[in-house]
Amino acid sequence: MKALTAYEEKLLDYLRKEAEELKDCFTQFSFQAIAVSSVGLGLLARFQPNFPLLGLGGICVVLIALSVGRIGTYKYAGANRINGYELYLDRIRRLEDTPGWKETYREVGWEEAVRAWRTVQPTVFRLYYEWGANTRNVVKPSFRNLEYMWFEPEKLHAKGTTYYAGSYLRTMLSILFMIVALGIASIAAMCFQLLVDKDWMHAIPAVGTGCLVLWLSVVKVRQLSQRRRLLEGGILCIHSCAIMWHLVITAHGRALASLSKIQGGSISSFEGYTRELSTQSLRLCEHLRAAKSPHEWIHELTAVRKERSDT
User: Fold this and answer.
1) What's the whole-model pTM score?
2) Which among 215, 210, 176, 220 is positioned nearest to 56, based on CA atoms?
3) Which pairs from 129-132 meet CB under 8 Å and 24+ separation?
4) Residue 152: helix, strand or coil by DSSP?
5) How many CB atoms are located within 10 Å of the residue 217 CB?
6) What digits encode the pLDDT tens for the residues 251-286?
């Protein structure tokens, strides 16, 4: 196994700390949201029977819980991306040069790598997953029966084995969802009180507001649950991020090679880099759309072979 470079060792030390800080940040936000929501729900339980319209405060509780849940998925996506980079480095140290993969591709700075990630990863993500309001984060039907679902590692294990990604994020989101349910319950109680009192002027808008909040909550809880699944066992988990990083760095290396060729053998300017990187992303997606392995694209240089055949 090849050794890490001095830069890679220093970078990994920094990235490990950043990953821990991201997770700790979500933990702090979660406990603060739980504390604030608990106080708010307690006050509603105490005073709402006498002042029904205070039930509107349940909207604030719902919004706080849903917002913190979304922050949590953002934080864990960032942490998984970082941990996936470390796993990627551990794996490529075992690889020799192939027609498609060059050891020199490792010579990339962190920000330069992230720049490439922000083009390649979203492009591949939208290839495999739905992006509609009601189907977001769900694998598209055309990719659900692939033989090698590299982006869904929980489906790669042999029959009889179990994939366990941890339960912390699931547990914290479950608590936040329970708070959402309690917030909706306070709104429902307000509507019931107003209807019983026949306060139609307030009851009708209250019921409409309650239905809107309920619909929004169901949609957001479903989206967060799907996102959490991707973070634990889908394309956003550490395993999949490691493969994605390999694809990203390969696309970046080939984009630089194309840029160098265009500029006469050496890179004198990064003008055109984004276009070349986008082209590599599209070629990668064309390869994956044909139900081919991402590792084949990395090591057999399918994109370059196609380019040669076109010329």
Assistant:
1) 0.88
2) 210
3) 129/230, 129/235
4) coil
5) 20
6) 999 999 999 988 887 888 899 999 999 999 999 999
